[in-house]
Design goal:
With 342 residues, the chain is mostly helical. It is built from 16 helices and three strands. GO terms for molecular function: DNA binding.
């Protein structure tokens, strides 16, 4: 038997062993598999934008535009961490000055986050190794504590009064204020509501919010009646279409919220000065729920699913929809169908 023939079983055994260890012959030779040529930022940003959710596009779209503006003709594997740090500094320095600005920290944070999102996709698409991701080697500015806080009852009454007595559609604006006050939902959750998401028998609405989270949220019988009446008046019969609409049947967008708070600020100087927005109503409701019913109920009310505790105990201290219904009944002063089932 020749030496070559005698070595074949040994070679096969070696190949089998390497396969089980997840090692290829190329790894032993230090040769990396050929990678596709990296695209330019101008070519790749539209690909990433088309692959992410609408919420991610809204959050990062303007920053991706800045990146294309600065590096559009460069390949995505060219910038070094130091160059990303330079761009981060430029964005932070040149941020548009607003009354509630905080030194451009948020803009710098979002730029780095937008780049990390882009490079995660590039790694998944095989354009570079995870270890070569330059955005992970650049720190994001530490996020400062939010300046938002709970709004007092008297101030909240002022907001409701202005919303109900001004503008071209005070009925719609009052509905929005009550919806966000009762449910503490985010704007995206409200805009995503469909007629099929209303359970009128149990006074529940199905909220779909950021991060793919969803939940059944109790609402008062009064709010449910107004939501149903709104659909009957402005809907087109499609139970899968948007629930919230203008008088002419067009679906609501984020612009309605912007215009609403600009108008309220024109009548209430403190709203304009402090840059009050719909998210302040979320703070207001959740603060009251936490103080009155505890953290577990507040977390369930908010739809939070992360960071609630570690270990199996967290499963047992999670609040139920019935406890949220009890908190809602306390908030609104109205009985809720689920409040008596706890």
């Amino acid at each position: 038997m020749s030496a070559t023939a005698a070595s074949r079983p040994e070679l096969e055994a070696a190949r089998l062993l390497l396969e089980r260890m997840g090692i290829s012959p190329a790894d032993l030779l230090g040769v990396r598999p050929a990678r596709p040529a990296a695209p330019t930022f101008a070519e790749y940003v539209p690909v990433v934008a088309a692959a992410v959710s609408a919420g991610t596009r809204r959050a990062y779209g303007s920053y991706w535009n800045r990146i294309v503006e600065a590096w559009g003709e460069r390949r995505i594997d060219e910038p070094r961490p130091s160059e990303i740090e330079q761009l981060r500094g430029q964005v932070q320095t040149n941020v548009v000055a607003r009354r509630n600005a905080r030194g451009g920290r948020s803009a710098a944070e979002h730029l780095v986050a937008a780049l990390r999102c882009l490079y995660r996709r590039a790694v998944a698409d095989g354009y570079l190794e995870a270890a070569d991701n330059p955005a992970l080697k650049v720190d994001k500015p530490r996020r400062l504590s939010s300046t938002r806080r709970a709004i007092g009852d008297a101030r909240l009454a002022e907001i409701n009064q202005v919303a109900a007595s001004t503008g071209d559609d005070p009925g719609l604006d009052s509905l929005l204020i009550r919806l966000h006050t009762e449910t503490a939902c985010r704007r995206g959750g409200a805009l995503a509501l469909r007629p099929r998401d209303l359970d009128s028998d149990q006074c529940l609405i199905f909220l779909r919010e950021k991060g793919g989270t969803s939940r059944w949220q109790p609402v008062s019988p009064t709010l449910m009646r107004h939501l149903l009446a709104h659909h009957a008046e402005r809907g087109d019969g499609d139970r899968d279409a948007a629930l919230l609409r203008y008088r002419d049947g067009r679906r609501l967008t984020y612009r309605r919220y912007d215009h609403l708070w600009v108008r309220i600020g024109q009548h209430l100087a403190w709203v304009r000065t402090q840059q009050i927005s719909m998210h302040w109503l979320r703070h207001t409701t959740l603060t009251w729920v936490e103080r009155t019913y505890g953290q577990a109920v507040a977390r369930a009310y908010a739809g939070h699913t992360d960071g609630g505790g570690k270990g199996s105990t967290a499963t047992y201290v999670r609040a139920s929809v019935y406890e949220v219904a009890v908190a809602l009944a306390g908030l609104t002063g109205e009985d809720h169908p689920l409040a008596g089932e706890i």
